[in-house]
Amino acid sequence: MPSVTMLLTVAAVLVGGYGVLVAGMSLMQRSLLYLPASDLGTTPREAGVPEMRGVVFTTEDGLNLTAWHRPPTTRDVTLVYFHGNGGHIGYRGPRVRPFLDAGYGVLLVGYRGYGGNPGRPTEDGLYADGRAALAFLNSRGFPAGRLVLYGESLGGGVAVRMAAEQARADTPVAAVVLEAPMSSVTDVAAHHYPFLPVRWLLKDRFETVPLVAEIAAPLFVAHGTADRVVPIRFGRKIFEAAREPREAFWVEGGGHENLSALGLHDRVLDFLDRHGTNEETRPGV
């Protein structure tokens, strides 16, 4: 029978090991959350969007960030694409191709620390990048009321935050589209790491649910029933907190990365057409 001393020693080792694990995960949390490809290493043509051009906008904290842009052709609306936590804008050409073909303007927002851009990603930093992107478009004659904010996965948190800020300023955007969004990083981290006190440790939370009710624009949420990265219950949580008008596309068998192949773009384009973003481009824009 083990002695009390031995049991206490084992308990101390287990507690100490757990403490080391928690400390290590806490220190590594941003490297686990943000997975940028540091070098853009491609051109719009190579990414399948040759009509887009590189542009630079400056954030409130002085970073010059590269993005890709094409003004609208047959629509009077620009889609602002906030991508997820991995890669860079060069990987998103196929995702915006249908919107370019439909005549929408598109801005693929480059984040700090991604694709050769300076800085390191943080929650506040990505919000600053989003504000700079919208300010760039406004300076080019594309006001908030003619913008569709599209958020992919983690980018959904940025899109919702920007839409809420525009609503607070009484300059709402035209619509918001969320693809496989996170209700919060906290929720998703707690799902994947149930053995860790993530709700105490996280620095970057992207709490989307409290903000989505502030959005004064039509909302479209798409999520796959087989998403193992961000389970569908988190997309439903966002949808349930949102105002009308709102629509959902719950994709049977859809995962985290394949919604485009399962009819997502057609559903989004139809949604946008039915919610007032189908006007022709104004002369001179």
Can you tell me about this structure?
The chain is an alpha/beta fold and 285 residues long. The protein has 2 domains: 1-33; 37-274, Alpha/Beta hydrolase fold, catalytic domain (Rossmann fold, 3-Layer(aba) Sandwich), CATH 3.40.50.1820. The chain has helices at 4-33, 93-101, 123-139, 155-168, 185-192, 198-201, 209-212, 232-241, 264-274, and strands spanning 35-36, 53-58, 64-70, 78-82, 86-87, 105-108, 147-152, 175-179, 219-224, 246-251. The strands form 2 sheets. Strands 2-3-6-4-7-8-9-10 form an 8-stranded mixed beta sheet, with helices on both faces. Strands 1-5 form a two-stranded parallel sheet. The longest helix has 30 residues, at 4-33. The termini are far apart.
Named CATH topology of the largest domain:
Rossmann fold
Strand content: 15-25%
What Rg do the Cα atoms give?
Answer: 21 Å
Mean pLDDT: 89
Report the biggest beta sheet as strand number plus sense, adding barrel if it closes: 8 strands, mixed
Number of domain modules: 2
Keywords:
two-stranded parallel sheet; 2 domains; Rossmann fold; eight-stranded mixed sheet; alpha/beta; 9 helices; 285 residues
Care to give the gist of this entry?
The chain is 38% helix and 17% strand. The chain has helices at residues 4-33, 93-101, 123-139, 155-168, 185-192, 198-201, 209-212, 232-241, 264-274; strands at residues 35-36, 53-58, 64-70, 78-82, 86-87, 105-108, 147-152, 175-179, 219-224, 246-251.
Question: Secondary-structure map with pairings?
Answer:
Layout: H1 4-33, E1 35-36, E2 53-58, E3 64-70, E4 78-82, E5 86-87, H2 93-101, E6 105-108, H3 123-139, E7 147-152, H4 155-168, E8 175-179, H5 185-192, H6 198-201, H7 209-212, E9 219-224, H8 232-241, E10 246-251, H9 264-274
Parallel strand pairs: 1-5, 4-6, 4-7, 7-8, 8-9, 9-10
Antiparallel strand pairs: 2-3, 3-6
